[in-house]
């Protein structure tokens, strides 16, 4: 039906042909918006040119939408007082149809009622009362396109929308094909403003594995499931958000969907949930909305075209029949037969649409006879079928029986596809060894023509798709046929081969494969089922690894890779697959925060397999991953040995880029070990190779654009060049941001953060920290997210927000330590300083003592001088200061910093020691400690550290400066 907005104010009609007065009326249908008072019609915001007569005809018809307006009435209203024949009316109606695109791409607005007149049959949404209908939602959402041609569900949408606001959890229940998804999507669009654009749609129709329901829901929200229960991450994300979550097509995974919905309802109090299912979820908080069939006339009712079009089921039939082409029109002679058809179909929209698609081929009366006959034949004696399946099943079976033998075979075989598919995919799966491509393509064309297969001709390629109900029916037929085993195997093999081909063009190839992931997931599920082919599954899992990582589906990657590894031995899997699977398992675990020896063992196995294969490039790539994981675990000596191993392999193979990459790793290892000069030598050697930055073989390693520059910035600060260090770090981060790759920023920023922290200038990168936190949560980069939380805590402490900052930093450090994050000791310095500042000196001392012991045990020496300095500062700030032990720690720090060549840390320690000596009345010693260190600096005099040193030296030089006597 058409919806009208009418304001309280009325204005006189300005059109010369329209004789009735007009209030300010706005009609919205399809992409059109008609303003009666302004005599203006727009399509998608652009004006549509209509003659005055055509506009008056449209306005008259739309005011009487759903009613037949006689030719005489139309002529009298449009040409008042004139003598005009029917031909003029037909000319203007034809022009109106052309302007509206009536009959194009399924659009239908005007219907000719033979011998009577014309009827407006379009449908539309109600525009807001106080503003024009918006063309865009308030905020981004992932709802499918608004179903503009929906018929007979306007009140349903309004009822569901109102109930959702009050009841929070609604399950729309009804049989297959009744339009549950259409209603849910329409309600979602209607509620966009209510939820400030936060409406998210989760389709569960493309998974067979109930265990994946939480991961699919997380993925639809832009989240990536962790290694633990993804529902935990969903709850954490949704707990404080006001949002509408639509869980569509729950019936085949009802237990998992019910468990997830109940938990989200209980733990996210502002979340509203709308589910669609063929059965209730039966969980706490659920309210039911049973979706009724479209209203149909009584059986054998005598109808005219005018009375018939008032029934929504008939209106839908007429629209779909007209969209199918062939010039179908509702007349007095066929109205009763159409009514009988819709009655026999029980007003189920999908059944009506399937039937309407054949009306021009068979005629309405013949279709009624065929449908009646097949109902009797199909359901006689089948009392075990669920009642809600019978009508739709009969409709689909009737359509199926109209197909030829080859068409049925092809349809059955195509049911293996989960989503849309290309003609190439259809040719690879459908038919038999004796079937030609021409036969398969002819069957495809016929299936499209007979409305059993949908055709979507996009800008890139033509794609086909089975309706879910049709697919389910055809799958039953496939399961009972001799093709039941071979078709799923062809399907899995096709996608395995397709994924292997994308290895040569990973960027474009993987992008094109992303929308076929449902089929890949379905193929994997079949391969590892009881009836599947595990050998094919191993190859498919290995080939799908790059796609898993591109989509950040790390948890799901672990699932399939683990199953493939278990099947390796029983299938005699290849060394190539063994290597790829173990490497992927380690990397996926690492990215989801599982930093442990198991991952190191998997990567070490992969390196050895690459060596067995003689794959030098693979060894170098995998050594990069192994080195990174060893650093994260805290095995710093092992990481150095791994980098040296990689350097030897690269040198032996004369791989100059590989040598540069390995020297970058050597530089990183030396940096962690506190060997500043060696670290700089290796990093500069790596930077001297022009091809290092452009090398794309790094994959999931510690290499990324501008990493050498950030490492160099850290070295420059340690060597006493704070200005150069800051400038280098800032430029590197700017370059990384320009790349616009969120994951790279999440890896790069924590590495650069040390420079700003040491320089006392963390505020300059707080904006980047906020972005890091958003991206790490979005992609579930668990460890990096915790590091980001620690960085944010430090930034908050710098802004004086002590309570919040300390709590965030303390929690993050504890979490990193529990995850065995090797560099967590460096974060203990700002944590201990913050604790000491709040009077928790004993706790601060305990944290530092443990960090120092852990650092010495693991040879994490880069920040050992600063940890010793911080320990002394805590001892001095205690209620009972231990000056002697503090001086001892400062002396150890000073000696170690000098030995390392870390002038930056040496100055920080010298300031602390000079201050202690001053406090103890040893001013001359204090000057002798601080002045030589300060004098070695040539820059950075405006940084907080050098300013503090300068001020302290000035105090020490003043004869009037006070001191505390030794106690």
Automatic annotation (TrEMBL):
Limits of the OmpR/PhoB-type domain: 24-122
Known DNA-binding region: 24-122
Superkingdom: Bacteria
Keywords: DNA-binding
InterPro entries: HTH_77, NB-ARC, OmpR/PhoB-type_DNA-bd, P-loop_NTPase, Sig_transdc_resp-reg_C-effctor, TPR-like_helical_dom_sf, WH-like_DNA-bd_sf
Stretches assigned to coiled coil: none
Protein name: ATPase/DNA-binding winged helix-turn-helix (WHTH) protein
Taxonomic source organism: Bradyrhizobium japonicum
